[in-house]
Amino acid sequence: FCYFIRLCLEKILLQCTPQSRTLSGADAINALRPFYFAVHPDFFGQHPKEREVNENSLKRLNGYLENLQKPGFRSFKPIQLTFYVRERNSSNVQESFNASGFRAVSFTLHTRDLLSTVLDILNSCSLSTEHIQSLNVNSQPLKEAKSTVNRPIKWDKTYYSFTGLRDPEEELEQAQRVETTLMSWLDDNEASAVKKLKKSLPLRKELERLKFELSHQLQLSDIRWQRSWGIAHRCSQLHSLGRLVQQRPEVLKNVKGRTVIFTDRSGMSAAGHIMLGTMDVHHHWTKIFERLPNYYKLQKRLLFLEDRISQLLGGIQVIYIEELQPLLTIEEYYKTLDSFYNKLRDSRLLFHPHSLRGLQMILESDRYAPSLHEFGHFTIPTICDPATLQWFIFAKAQEARENLKRKEEMMITERELMDTSAEKFSLDRLYKEPSVSSAQMINCCKRLLEESLPYLQGMHLCISHFYCVLQDGDLCIPWNWK
């Protein structure tokens, strides 16, 4: 009888609390608009690392929000997310500023309903929550709602022992106390990954077929994607390109030997690749292909500029690294080179001819001081003072040569360890995200090879900075897994 009374009281109390007034998915999206605006990857185009972190965190956040909206959803695991935010606001959450001046915000989500989750996200990023009052999802003032929305019904521990129900406080404490390990995470997610992978296999075969046929038909060097879109999305993009080939074959006569990249905008990249914007229609793509002869002329002028800069800087080679630099159009990159060349030409720097041959440098417009990358190339700001530039290159030249040599050795070691790991665990594919360095990948593979991981047989494994099962069944694990 007491048990029955307790259950009735619990039901009545739950109906009286703000949690019973659930927030719809559409309302949640509207409420989170300030947050999405602050962290949207498209606003970080000049900062590939921050953009990638926000993209990955948004994927995990969307999965968490989707689970909260599933009927009868009970079990959940707190997840920690990190976002780079454009504006600086006072906050009590863990945050730090990177070299680009963005604020890194880290917070943990552990709530069971949409409203409290939305409030947690906005408050964690120091964003206003006043606009949520207009959504009419809670009759109480927002300040009061914030204080009560997460209020649990606290039962004596004997209640949970008697009923067999889970104690939410104990679950949260245990989740926060126990650190996620590779084995425990694989135990929990292997079945889900296998299911998604099997479902994606027909689409993966279709993708490979389409890619091979288009590459062969157009004599392309490669077809790539800037972002980690799903397999279905990629197939759709290749079908669109295939239809254009059938409808306007004459406009694709100048693509031989080139690389096509599906990305956010159309044009030619600084590296000389043909960019097809995924939001553009065939009319825009057709214009890009028709402009290719002009793009090729501009590319020749760009190469000439790079050669002139190299001569002024003692033979140092000017390069463009897609993985480390923003995806610039060839017009944007040409303007950057031209501005930098004019500054060097007027400064009359004294570099001995060919004294820096074998060294490399990249140009960036959002930095203020030169630096030397661990891979051996110089990162030079376009606004760098010529005298400072000359002193820095002279001071770091020997270290740069040593880093370049170490890079070659490291890349060989990385490739060997990846091949060995893929073979040992019978992986169908092993790859890493661009933000994972060779040193981190080597460390990860060495530690993996010491383990026995039968779960990985036939899987697609991505080395990243977080745990995640992608929509097509790829397993993402952090390089520094425990």
Mean pLDDT across the residues is: 81
Number of strands: 15
Instruction: Determine the oligomeric state from the structure.
Output: single chain
- Spatial strand order of the main sheet: 4-5-7-6
Helix content: 40-55%
SSE layout and pairings?
Layout: H1 2-16, H2 25-31, H3 33-39, H4 48-68, E1 79-85, E2 94-97, E3 103-109, H5 114-124, H6 142-148, H7 157-163, H8 168-177, H9 182-218, E4 222-225, H10 231-247, E5 259-263, E6 267-268, E7 274-277, H11 282-290, H12 292-312, E8 317-318, H13 330-347, E9 360-364, E10 371-372, E11 378-381, H14 386-424, E12 429-432, H15 438-448, E13 460-464, E14 468-469, E15 475-478
Parallel strand pairs: 4-5, 5-7, 8-9, 9-11, 12-13, 13-15
Antiparallel strand pairs: 1-3, 2-3, 6-7, 10-11, 14-15
Helix pairs in contact: 9-10, 12-13, 14-15
Short description:
InterPro entries: DUF4460, DUF4461, TCAIM. Helix content is 49%, strand content 13%.
Describe this structure in words.
The protein is globular and about 85 Å long. Helix 9 packs parallel to helix 10 (231-247) and helix 12 runs parallel beside helix 13. Among the domains are: 25-88 and 99-131, no CATH class; 184-408, no CATH class. By secondary structure, it is of the alpha/beta class. It has 15 helices and 15 strands.
Kindly list the characteristics that best describe this protein.
482 residues, four-stranded mixed beta sheet, 13% strand
